[in-house]
Amino acid sequence: MRPFPAPLPAAAALLAAIGASSMTADAAPRTTFTVSMPRPSTHLFELVMEVAPFPAAVESFDLVLPVWAPGSYFVRDYARNVQDIEVEGPGGPAAVEKVEKSRWRVRPARRARGPFTARYRVYANELTVRTSHLDETHGYGNGPSLFLYVDGRKDEPYALRFVLPEGWRVSIALPDEGGAFLARDYDELVDSPFECGTHRTYGFEVRGVPHTLALWGRGNEDPERLVADLSRIVEAAAALFGGLPYERYLFLVHVASGARGGLEHRASQSVAFEPTGFRPAKRYRDVLALFAHELFHVWNVKRIRPASLGPFDYTREVYTRDLWAMEGITSYYEGLLLVRAGLVEPKHALEAWGKEIRDHRQTPGAAVQSAEAASFDAWIRYYRPDENSPNVSEGYYRRGALIGLALDLTLRQATSGRSSLDAVLTHLHDEYGGRPTGYPEGAYEAHVSSVSGVDVSDFFRRYVRGVETPPFEELFARVGLAMREKPEKDEDEEEAGPKGAPPRRTLADLGWKTRTENGRIVVAEVYRGRAAYEAGVGAGEELVAVDGRKADGDLLRRLERDLAPGTAVKLHLFRRGLLREVVVPLGERRDFTYEIVPDPEASPARRALYEGWLGRPFPAEARPLDPPAGERLE
Ligand SMILES: [Zn+2]
Q: How far is the CA of 379 from the centre of ligand 1 (A)?
């Protein structure tokens, strides 16, 4: 890595004239888009699409806009933002008729190969990484929401030009040839988001490959430190896979109020952060984790992927049972990469995994929906959550991350460290990374077995297709770590008991989540099998009083802390405007997290597994373990 000390200018401002379709070196015709934004305050991108000539004269053809963006499994119907579409061809204007929600049929004035030029506008006023956004401060373009394709011709090369407001420049991961950015096909074109404006850019190299950090907006970030830390993350990923598979890479960052999220691409990532999100250290670790997550997707999902995830069908939902591996294993590695890069201490990663394991074990839906089922239903479950979601589902991010963790530890101990999830992913990348299509759906398990030599059929049956939870206590023990329950810190500890006394571990439990709406307390979620659920309280009801006292957040918190489990409380609730009374015998819940710490008694073999896994020395001064928390209590 070679971070440059000072900001570098991005690509020079492009004021390209709208001309004929550009030609590649081998003279293959390119369809060329010219994007302009003459009045950014209207949020309208203006697009001119010069369609490369057809091989033979056509009577009609279809223009199509994607309904979804790869990486975000939700039908967004981007066509609802398209307006003023018209097509010009030989003999004059063509007839344009909308035949489906995202499809326009074009009938030229006369049969011809071309040239055809489509002009249209796209309203872009939604600031997320999955949509496009244009105003006086910048233009962010997310390909699937902007670029039409000619049905049947997605495999052809494309070129992209910009006409920019004065003083603006563009950042994009596509190669720049004389003012035109070239894409080998439509997939690459729409996988290359762009940022136009006066954003700051910082260039750096890792293993001789140029990387750019583009920052729009300002917050409490430290760009020099970001460059240094991103370099280390990239290097850790390159070390795992034995190199970088791209010729350049763009970190496209939005810093804006209300912003949070990321979307992966083959040679770039779009991520968004709150202006205050870069400090203190704990929040900065989350920032780095998001960068690491989206970077890891360069390999896992953009190159290692099931067949349905590239090349893409943009017209409808595509299905795979492996999103737990694409997203979950990526989530697992975001923590692992940061540890290996030396940016996060192992204890922080272990603490985060401990919380995930606790939450997983406490989610009722985890016993109902498998990781494969959650993957398949992403379109209607994960992306469309409702009040019943926790009872019937568990997101494939968390569950998949825990499966990745368990699978990695299983492979490492079964092979005494000779194989691992690293080896599986490296193999899958070598095998499929360069292929035009992904691996056959259903082949993942067989690859894990053949690479590692470990029979994982039982593992997949129980934890991937089934709803069992891996035995984490046992798995961590094999790498020299002890995992056990630890009481959560109680904010009111001093009030609850004499200072120094062990914090309480058992709380009364209503088994619901509430939210405040205009000062009213509304029941948001009611968890299956717990107190409120069993007493018949439903999500959406407004809580007005508890035991005759006006309900507020403080009262609810004190109630769970101060009352004994089993106590009956009388709730007054409004359901569809009618007041009703419900008596709820309080349940009981333990308030804890999992502590995962080095075991000073761990054998040299187990210590070696730890070091091979985290890439860090086993703590020399592992402190003697306290007696298990349970022995000190009650
Ligand atoms: Zn992801």
A: 15
**Cβ atoms of 467 and 369 closer than 8 Å:** yes
Ligand 1 centre to CA of 388 (Å) is: 24
**Distance from the alpha carbon of residue 72 to the mean position of ligand 1, in angstroms:** 9
Q: How far is the CA of 132 from the centre of ligand 1 (A)?
A: 19
d(CA 535, ligand 1 centre) in Å = 39
Neighbour order of strands in the sheet with 82-89: 92-93, 82-89, 116-123, 44-51, 31-36, 158-163, 180-183, 176-177
Q: How far is the CA of 585 from the centre of ligand 1 (A)?
A: 41
Average per-residue pLDDT in the chain? 92
pLDDT digits (tens, 9 = 90+) for 95-133: 999 999 999 999 999 999 999 999 999 999 999 999 999
544: its two tokens: 């007005």
Ligand 1: distance of its center to the CA of 289 in Å? 11
We find that the CATH architecture of domain 200-278 is 2-Layer Sandwich (3.30)
- For residues 528 and 513, is the Cβ–Cβ distance under 8 A? no
CA 430 to centroid of ligand 1, rounded, Å: 21
The CA 381 to ligand 1 mean position distance, Å, reads 16
Class of domain 506-590: mainly beta
Question: What is the rounded average pLDDT of the residues 311-317?
Answer: 98
Residue intervals of the chain classified under CATH 2.60.40.3650 are 31-198
CATH superfamily of 299-481+594-634: Neutral Protease Domain 2 (1.10.390.10)
Q: Which CATH class is domain 31-198?
A: mainly beta
Question: Tokens 């762009």 belong to which residue?
Answer: 194
- Residue intervals of the chain classified under CATH 2.30.42.10 are 506-590
Q: Which SS3 state, helix, strand or coil, does residue 447 take?
A: helix
How far, in Å, is the centroid of ligand 1 from the Cα of 549?
45
At residue 515, the 3 state secondary structure works out as strand
Reply yes or no on whether the pLDDT at 5 is more than 80: no
Confidence of residue 10 (pLDDT cuts 50, 70, 90): very low
CA of 548 to the centre of ligand 1 (A): 47
Distance 231 CA to ligand 1 centre (A): 20
Query: How many angstroms is it from 162 CA to the middle of ligand 1?
Result: 29
Please report which confidence band the pLDDT of residue 20 belongs to, taking 50, 70 and 90 as the band edges. very low
User: Where does the chain hold its CATH 3.30.2010.30 domain(s)?
Assistant: 200-278
Q: CATH 1.10.390.10 region(s) of the chain?
A: 299-481+594-634
- What 3-state DSSP class applies to 203? strand
Strand 149-150 relative to strand 61-64: parallel, antiparallel, unpaired?
A: antiparallel
Angle 396-414/444-452 helices, nearest 10 degrees?
A: 20
Cβ atoms 331, 400 nearer than 8 A: yes
Cα 306 to ligand 1 centre (Å): 15
* pLDDT-above-70 percentage for the chain: 91
Does 14 have pLDDT greater than 60? no
CA 610 to ligand 1 center in whole angstroms = 26
| CA 275 / ligand 1 centre spacing (Å) | 22
The tens digit of pLDDT for each residue in 448-504 reads 999 999 999 999 999 999 999 999 999 999 999 999 999 887 555 544 444 555 555
